[in-house]
Amino acid sequence: MKKDTLDILHPLIHDLISRESDPGEIHMCPNCKGKLHVSIQILKHAHPPRYLAVGARCEKCKIEGYFHFDESAIPPWAKESIINNMSLEEALKYLNEDSEEE
Which residues pair with 65 in a beta bridge? Predict the structure, then answer.
């Protein structure tokens, strides 16, 4: 990712993952004020650590960036969001792994 792209998107991405609730997918692009699509996901390998992956792409100016943050940056709402999208069996396994790590 080019440094200017990082400088443009990073403040917004940091703000979004710092919020107390899920900020949603569509935001205003800090570069052109167009529609910026943001995807926030927890990525988990076969074994820890998990990390937070954030992708952003503007429909209008086509600026895009992908950011990875370590597990300590995962906001509580992101954990809840991923659990809500899991089957019951997957959610129970995920919660059991979390409690074993603590």
Answer: 56
- Maximum Cα interatomic distance, the chain, rounded to a whole number of Å: 45
Q: How far apart are the first and last CA of the chain?
A: 34
Tokens of residue 19, six digits: 């919020």
CA distance 67 to 29: 16
Contact 70, 54 (CB under 8 A): no
Q: Are 26 and 35 in contact (CB under 8 A)?
A: yes
Task: Write down the pTM of the prediction.
Answer: 0.74
Contact by Cβ (8 Å): 45, 33: no
- Is residue 100 pLDDT above 70, yes or no? no
